[in-house]
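Quick bug: Lysine transporter LysE output formatted oddly.
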Amino acid sequence: MTNFLPLVLGFCIAFLAVILPGLINMTAAKISLQEGKNEAISFAVGASVVVFVQTFIAVLFARFISQHQEIVATLQEIGIFIFAGLSVYFFWIAKKPKKIKPEAKIKGKSNRFFFGMLLSMLNLLPIPFYVFASMGLAAAGYFSFDKIPVATFVAGVVLGSFSVFYLYIVAFKKIEKKTEFLMRNINYVIGSVTTFMAIVTLIKLLCD
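Here's what came back:
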């Protein structure tokens, strides 16, 4: 059960982080509509491979940081401001989000697996995000940097990300009609998660 928890946490965090319409999601949906489900799945798998690498690097970096206590407190303080800032953004600034349209132009059929990898590599935000997320979970006692928890957490993130990509592939027409409703409400959910992470990290600092 202890090793299963990081899998669930990784899945949930990734699912919430990726569920908003973005370049990769919308491109996957567009490929599905224009070229078929199989091509879109190939694209999603390619993007998920990069997510795996990015998350693994992020967790290893977080483990390295955790082993150097002289910088942990400073980074936790930075993490508080980051999570607090994200909470403010999702609760207030993002109340009336606009629909995000894919900017990537799809020209002909190429290897969609490598196209997915390319688009995913252009997004570097997952690395710092999962650094602070894994450190926050570790500070709360829900995660450790041992081999099995790291492996299950990374697997959870990959599964959560791919699940969202697949959701857009198979149900985009239904999602498209409810995008504004989805974005407006998911912002509050993500805002609650980032607020929780900020509070947990603050309590950890005060207790130490």
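Actually, after a second look the formatting is fine. Residues 4-207 form one domain. Closing.
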